[in-house]
Design goal:
Blueprint: H1 2-7, H2 28-43, H3 50-72, H4 96-113, H5 123-129, H6 135-147, E1 149-157, E2 160-169, H7 178-186, H8 231-253, H9 257-280, H10 292-315, H11 334-341
Antiparallel strand pairs: 1-2
Helix pairs in contact: 2-4, 2-8, 3-4, 4-8, 6-8, 8-10, 9-10
Length: 342
Amino acid sequence: MILVDDAGGVLPAINHSPWNGLTLADVVMPFFLFMVGVSLGLTYKKLSCKAVATRKAILRALKLLIIGLFLQGGFLHGLNDLTYGVDLTQIRWMGILQRIAVGYLVGAMCEIWLKGDNQVTSGLSMLRKYQFQCVSLLDLFANCVRGAVVILVSFISFLVIWVVKCGVRGTTGPACNAVGMIDRTILGIHHLYRRPVYARTKTCSINSPDNGPLPPDAPSWCQAPFDPEGLLSSVMAVVTCLVGLHYGHIIVHFKEHKDRILHWMVPSTCFVVLGLVLDLSGMHVNKALYTFSYMCVTAGAAGIVFTGIYILVDVFGFRRPTLGFYWKQPGNNILRLIGIGR
């Protein structure tokens, strides 16, 4: 992400997609959430006390949330404005670490409280053991995206009040989508990210896919705030975490290499194929909205990469290419790098 923030404008292939589509930068967040889920499956494979585990999970999520608010909420004003503090009327409530905190907390609660007691002897018995973990979130996301009616969008830019008339249902365009509407309604439009990715689309930038001046006929919504780590999109992000949790379950319940690889590769391939089919059918792969097709493609890709690394390192014992991941400094703590990158 440091590379994307600093060099994304020079190398469009590693920058975020302006709206629909997928680039290298767009897989970083879901891959991270996927590995959070895998780690949860290993962390909570044995529980001595559910109450203690719940308290620790909540405290860890709160720490991530607070750090995220500090790094992305508006406390750090940049090198050209060496001041501190934040205007609470415009603080950005959601962000990268906040989304990770939500995914971690929901995944941990599912693993602690929604896990069956039956023994796992096959793939089917494992599905029965964890059958309640994903259904409710998928249903919530689908109903919100397809059922919410976006009437209009209003915002202030350069002291001018702009209004975008919508009156549509189920759209995934930049102007009138349920993801942005719910964030504006619950969080407030002044608490959203003020540099949305769709400002780099051809409609909103003459230098697309990079940032640039507005075209003469640019619509007013090009200047509207939009949070790529908002509330509704975080629901599907949590599902990515739960997919990773399932892969962690496979490590716990299956000990043979061939069983693990089979139970990883089959759903990974199905996820990628399903996501591509949905994209071709009109439900586009979109990181900003965290669409179901985007979740499928990125979760499946994460599973395939994870399986490939497992085969390379654990099956063939070829560890040399992965030695760079075993950092002794800085303190084995990725949060330090995130803080430096911000």
